[in-house]
């Protein structure tokens, strides 16, 4: 059985930073059902979990940025691939093509 590709959304900051991206992740999950959608943010925003779960988005809390927890690091390793030209481990976040958006 083949697993779904993942679309990982990650945001840190205040509600004004987090909520818009959470809404985009939820809309993406509803529109692109072929993806496993993951939303990573501060544990302080766990009130979003119910909304995200209702929209088939996996919520992963982290205790504090910019440290990437071991769980988040494993998820990023599992669901991302890096080209030979990438110089930074999070370079995939800069390219919408890596999460299924059209070019």
Description of the structure:
With 103 residues, the chain is α/β, with parallel strands linked by helices. The protein has one domain. It has three helices and three strands. Strands 1-2-3 form a three-stranded parallel β-sheet, sandwiched between helices. The N and C termini lie far apart (29 Å). The C terminus is likely disordered.
Write the layout of secondary structure elements.
Layout: E1 6-10, H1 15-31, E2 36-42, H2 49-54, E3 57-62, H3 70-79
Parallel strand pairs: 1-2, 2-3
Task: Please give a handful of descriptors for the protein shown.
103 residues, globular, three-stranded parallel β-sheet, disordered C terminus
The fraction of residues in strands falls at 15-25%
Give the total of domains: 1
List segments where confidence is low: pLDDT < 50 over at least 5 consecutive residues.
82-103
Biggest β-sheet strands, sense, barrel: 3 strands, parallel
Helix amount: 25-40%
Q: Look at the helices and sheets and give the structural class.
A: alpha/beta
- What is the mean pLDDT? 75
Distance from N terminus to C terminus (CA atoms, Å) equals 29 Å
Short description, anyone?
With 103 residues, the chain is α/β, with parallel strands linked by helices.
